[in-house]
Each structure stands twice: as structure tokens, then as C-alpha cells.
Amino acid sequence: MDFKRLSQFIDQITSWRIPWAEVVVIQRNETVFRYRNGYADLEEKIAIDDRRIFNLYSLTKILTCTAALQLVERGAFLLNDPLSAYLPEYAEMTVRKSLPDGRIALERAERPIRVRDLFAMTAGFSYDLGAPSIRDVAKRTEGRVPTREFASALAKEPLHFEPGTRWNYSLCHDVLAALVEVVDGRRFSAYVRDEITGPLGMQDTGFDLSEEQRGRLAPQYEYDDALGKPVRKDGNGFRVGTEFESGGAGLLSTVSDYVLFLNALTNRGTSPDGVRILSPAAVDLMRTDHLDASMRGDYSWEQLAGYGYGLGVRTHISKAASGSLTPLGEFGWSGAAGCLAVIDPDSQLTVMYAQHLLNNQEPFVHPRLKNIVYACL
Question: Which of 11, 55, 212, 376 is deepest in the core (most CB within 10 A)?
């Protein structure tokens, strides 16, 4: 193995517009390469280090779906169950329908939202955190917005399509976190700590930080094209309340911590120390493509050509379409500030890439990073 090209790529992008970047590569449970470059704090010229905490954003989704799949394994619910069996407010949904004259009508949904629709982003939700019902629950709870109440509020919003008929990146996994709470009885953060992060030894991963951890939180940036440089933009805009534990975008972590979780999935659900968080069968179900022909046109992001969508993850289904060097069945996801997870059980390979830039350059960085990693092996 020769990872010179990978370190050169990290140097290239951190001299371009990304303040800092870090990558760790694990093969057969051994860290074969780790490299970082750039400044955690540009203003103070503080170099990035291995204890920096940052927003995972949508990399949270893999863990949320893992938590929910644990309950599937335990028989707590089935993927084909109607969501209303557990969250009754979703029993009678309305759907926006376009009329021939261009007007929008609200009609009663003909199909129920099923649990699988939450996993697979096919429920009909949007990602509108400014919707009237969400604004109302924030006001009513005086800015707390507990996770369960968030889900109840979202049920008041009309769906954008009949459940199970299209794909739309949305608040599905935030509702999935509420489902875990209702079925299990614990607050979502407590469930995650007790069933996943605690057993795996992930001490720096959670929805809230201690005072000591706040001191290690990396500044967040957004590149300003007019100024030609990154500017500070701290905070998580997906956290709409102090008690909202966003299953879609709420976790904070470090590279060292989160790669432990990703590597357990690479090992088909069990850590090198023998901690089992999922069965091999559940991991394979997670990385199975769950899209049908009617949904593929919606799933059209440039960097995901050749990928299908599983239970909360992209999954590689066509080398010809992707042009990627990763094998079929490689899966994972990414986050709004540019993090990337590569989980590859067949090659026994795990890659965790991190940065903290909101306009993240994902279509440029992520496909190149994956190809360079596999070329270096």
C-alpha cells in the first residue's frame, strides 16, 4: 500500500478552500493510514488535531437507522408496519396534488406511511424546517421541541406525494428517531448511548456536549466566494429546539469515535472487540437497494450516479454508471459540512473522512477521495 496520493489530495483541498480535512483508512481492523492537514481555527491558526469535535450532520442518519434496525431485529416493529400503529397522528395524512389548472389541492392520502418509508426516504416529507407546524411547536414548547413532539407536529403538514411512490431527501430519519423513542421508551439519546455508542466506547459522540467537549468543538466555516475565503458560521441549523435530538443531522463526534461505529458495520455488525450492534443479515438489508423504477428519477445527485439507496445509506449498484473503483455493495453516506463514510464489508475496508465546511464541495471531493483510496490499496 502506498497512500502518498491520498495525503497529496488532502493537501490539495486544504490549500484550496477547505480549512481542514482528515481521513482514516482501516483495513481488516487495522488502521493502515491516517492523515490530516489544515487549521481547525483559521483565525487563530490552530492546526487540526485528533480530538476535535465537529457536526456530523447527515452522517447521523446511518446511526439512527442502525438504532431502528436493532428494534426490527428484536421484533419491536416490522418494516411493512403502518407508522400510525406507533405514532397515531400519522393515521390520516393529506397529500398535495397538482390540478390541471395549476392549482394545488389537498387530498386524503390513499396509502399509509409505512416504517420502511422512514428508512428509505419515501414517506412524502420535505426538509422544510420552517414549516408552520414546526414553528408552532417551537413556540409552544418555548424553544425545547422534544423529538417526539417534533414528529407529532410534522404529521400536521401535507405530504408531497403518496407514501412509497417517490424518493425525497427529507425529515424521515428525524421521525424515525421519534419512533425509536415511542417503541423503546427511552429518550433517543439514551437509547443511542446505551445500545450503540456506550458499548462501542464512543465517549465523544452525542447530541449535547459537556463543558470540556465544548472546548474541543471545531469552528465551522462557509466559503465566501465574494471574499475568496472561508468565514465562520457556527451552529447547527437542523437543531430546531434545545431538546430536539435530530436523528437526521444532530450528532457531534470525532473522527476517532465515529470510525469505531462505521468499522463495526464493515464487520457486518460486530466490533473487533466482539460488541455486536447489528446482525450480518441486518447489515445486508441496510445496504440492499430499496429504490424501484418510479423513484430513480428523484435520486439523481451527481455524486451518487451508479448508487442505489438502502435503509439510510447509498449503496453501490453499477460500476459502469458510477465510474467508481469501489466494489458493488460498498455503502455509507455523507454530511452537510462534508464528512463521508465508506463502509465496505467485502473488502473489509472502512474510510472516515471529515471536514467542517458547509458549502462542502462534496461532488468534487467525495468521488475522487474514494477512487484515490482504492487505488492506493
Answer: 55
Q: By the 8 A CB rule, do 48 and 136 touch?
A: no
Closest CA to 113 of 137, 132, 134, 85: 85
- Tell me the domain boundaries of the chain: 4-69+200-376, 79-184
Give all strands of the β-sheet with 46-47 in edge-to-edge order: 46-47, 30-41, 20-27, 349-354, 340-344, 331-332, 314-316, 307-309
3-state secondary structure at position 181: helix
pLDDT of residue 100: 80
- CB contact set of 280 (below 8 Å; sequence gap of 6+): 268, 269
Do 119 and 77 form a contact (C-beta atoms < 8 A)?
Answer: no
Q: Which CATH number fits domain 4-69+200-376: 3.40.710.10, 3.30.360.10, 3.90.550.10, 3.30.465.10?
A: 3.40.710.10
Looking at every residue in the chain, the average pLDDT score rounds to 97
**Tens-digit pLDDT profile for residues 47-69:** 999 999 999 999 999 999 999 99
For residues 208 and 256, the answer to whether their CB atoms sit within 8 Å is no
CA of residue 250 relative to chain centroid, distance: 9
pLDDT at 197 over 80: yes
* Strand residues in 42-103 grouped as ranges (E): 46-47, 54-55, 94-98
pTM equals 0.96
